[in-house]
Write a structure and sequence with these properties.
613 residues; mainly beta; 22-stranded antiparallel beta barrel; 5-stranded mixed beta sheet; 6 helices; 6% helix; disordered N terminus
Length: 613
């Protein structure tokens, strides 16, 4: 196949797997039609449903052990937020099927209030991406993607797990497809009493007890795609998620509190794919509601409802076989209503227009340049840009370079919370660059990625002379470091060995104090090894987290000590349908915290079973 047809295969949101005879044997619809383009220029770490089952407690655990992101968690299952390349939680974008789902209230996502189950793949992309994925894509982005297969018939599976601390996780999915129609449905239910003890902790005289740590969540996903014509598909994906978290308390007589969250996401997409152009028109509705209870036995203390109406069009055209133009337009209406939360009735219109030009001079060399302008009501937003290039110099070495300007506009809380909201806030902006050096030797692959970013107009909440806190653009920061990733995959007979390891060196400096920013470990390393023999599977995974400061003055006595955690599991599959396994987490029985004072569990266990039908 020539360059044009090969690239069209990658660019199409509705791709065909082709043999040399050009015979179509299978088709897959992908809602995030930009991701295949992103992978041409950027390093992306893909996590499959099988990877997710290793860390099935919550999304925080999955990202902690299988990515370079630092996860701050106020005790197992409680409030959790990411730090990507030394940036803040608001500077990491969560993207559901191509739609940015960061909260309009907080400007970030609470990781443990995002469903872990129900996705066909989860992808982690480091570096800026605001030109394509919008506000907040500064440190990186986390993509929660669904796909719909054609010509697969009926498939179903059930995953069920019982774990320490009265924890139970259940996930059921089923799908059916023929040559024109595809349907997929799934649901999950997770619950945990989540009371565990760490006697060695010094937070109280009796150590740390995760009192009032109970949580549960329920999720439901449904998707369908229909080929309305030879080169057109109409597709729909929806997700409903309901969650409750009790916030841990240190002493028995402390007030017991809880937080409830409900989210609804629904997306309709009409896609046209022809020989030299494609177009994807999407309409989406997302809703985020929350309630906080200052006393778990009384009515809610405060809460809010957020509704977002989103329209997006992605047009892709090949001028020649080597030159590709991509235009993306988007319009949103964000609405919010608060209850005793400082926000009453607010609404905001947001529009954007982005253009990308891709040039493929040879099979081994490619370039992409992008520019974007956002039109945010009552906020002056900067022009964003990006440039990427990748060159496969030889069979064993390739190099890529990425430069971009990215931004995050203020959230509803930043602007409208009373008292303290500030209508004069400017968007946070960053200018950044990174390189990817990729080495391949047989079954080995090593990627080394140095990066640098300069961030200004950071939004911080500070005390005022009036006795309350308020939002200001006061801080500047720079973040630089190196990410490295090592992969090895070898099959020999009935044996298979897979090794994935990563190390991150991250300096994130407050330009005013010249000190490391809070909750940014300088060193982090993760490793996952899988061994398969016929029906038997064994895995082990570990994470090392270096010294982590919890104060802005690098006070060593308040810092979180370095720690290493080791997990392992084994499972056996019978008749390709029935799997039974056991997992041991924190084999080393390590005492550790990811947020000051909130200890994480010591050694704990789970057993699980999977049935495929």
């Amino acid at each position: 196949m020539d360059i044009k047809r090969s690239l069209l295969f990658l660019f199409s949101s509705y791709g065909s797997f082709l043999f040399a005879q050009e015979k179509t044997v299978d088709t897959i619809y992908v809602f995030d039609n930009q991701m295949n383009k992103v992978k041409l220029f950027h390093k992306v770490n893909t996590l499959t449903p099988k990877d997710i089952e290793k860390n099935s407690t919550n999304l925080s655990d999955l990202l902690r052990y299988q990515s370079s992101i630092y996860i701050k968690e106020n005790g197992r299952g409680a409030v959790s937020s990411p730090s990507f390349r030394g940036t803040t939680a608001q500077q990491t974008a969560f993207v559901w099927n191509g739609i940015n789902i960061n909260s309009t209230f907080l400007g970030q996502a609470d990781i443990n209030n995002i469903s872990l189950f129900g996705y066909d793949q989860m992808e982690v992309k480091a570096g800026g991406g605001s030109v394509i994925y919008g506000s907040g894509a500064i440190g990186g982005s986390i993509h929660l993607n669904n796909t719909l297969d054609f010509n697969k018939g009926f498939h179903g599976s059930l995953f069920s797990e019982a774990a320490s601390f009265d924890t139970y996780n259940n996930f059921l999915k089923a799908s059916f497809s023929n040559d024109k129609f595809s349907f997929k449905v799934s649901g999950n239910y997770s619950i945990s009493q989540n009371e565990y003890k760490v006697p060695e902790s010094k937070v109280t005289e009796e150590g740390y007890i995760n009192r009032n740590g109970r949580y549960y969540n329920t999720g439901f996903n449904i998707g369908a795609s229909y080929k309305i014509a030879k080169q057109q598909t109409l597709s729909w994906q929806s997700q409903i998620f309901d969650a409750s978290q009790h916030y841990p308390i240190f002493l028995n007589n402390d007030s017991k509190t809880k937080y409830k969250a409900q989210t609804l996401r629904s997306l309709l997409s009409w896609d046209i794919n022809k020989s030299n152009f494609s177009n994807s028109l999407k309409a989406a509705y997302t809703e985020d509601n929350f309630q906080y209870f200052g006393d778990i036995d009384k009515p809610k203390s405060n809460g809010a409802e957020g509704k977002n109406y989103i329209f997006k069009n992605d047009f892709n055209y090949f001028i020649t076989s080597k030159i590709n133009v991509n235009v993306i337009g988007e319009f949103q209406v964000n609405k919010a209503e608060g209850y005793e939360s400082g926000i009453k009735h607010v609404s905001r219109n947001v529009g954007s227009l982005a253009g990308l030009l891709r040039y493929f001079p040879t099979e081994n060399l490619r370039f992409e340049a992008g520019i974007k302008k956002d039109f945010v009501e009552d906020i002056s937003s900067p022009i964003q840009y990006s440039f990427s290039g990748k060159w496969s110099i030889s069979q064993w070495y390739s190099v890529g370079i990425n430069m971009s300007r990215n931004f995050r506009y203020p959230s509803f809380n930043d602007l409208y919370w009373q008292p303290g909201g500030n209508l004069d806030l400017r968007p946070e902006t960053s200018v950044q660059a990174d390189m990817d050096h990729e080495f391949k030797f047989g079954d080995f692959k090593l990627t080394v990625s140095p990066y640098y970013m300069d961030i200004k107009d950071l939004i911080s909440w500070l005390p005022t002379q009036y006795g309350y806190w308020s939002a200001f653009n006061v801080k500047r920061a720079e973040s630089y470091g190196v990410e490295s990733q090592f992969n090895y995959h070898k099959n020999f007979g009935k044996h298979a060995l897979v090794l994935n390891a990563a190390y991150t060196y991250s300096k994130s400096i407050d330009k005013d104090t010249k000190m490391q920013r809070m909750y940014v470990p300088i060193h982090k390393a993760v490793g996952n090894i899988d061994y398969h023999y016929d029906f038997l599977k064994i895995y082990a995974q570990g994470v090392f987290n270096g010294l982590t400061y919890t104060t802005s003055d690098e006070k060593r006595s308040e810092a979180l000590d370095p720690y290493f955690i080791l997990n392992a599991g084994v499972s056996a599959t019978i008749s390709k349908k029935y799997t039974l396994g056991v997992k041991v987490n924190n084999i080393t029985d390590t005492i550790y915290e990811t947020v000051a004072f909130y200890s994480m569990p010591k050694r704990n266990y789970s057993i699980f079973a999977t049935i495929n039908f």
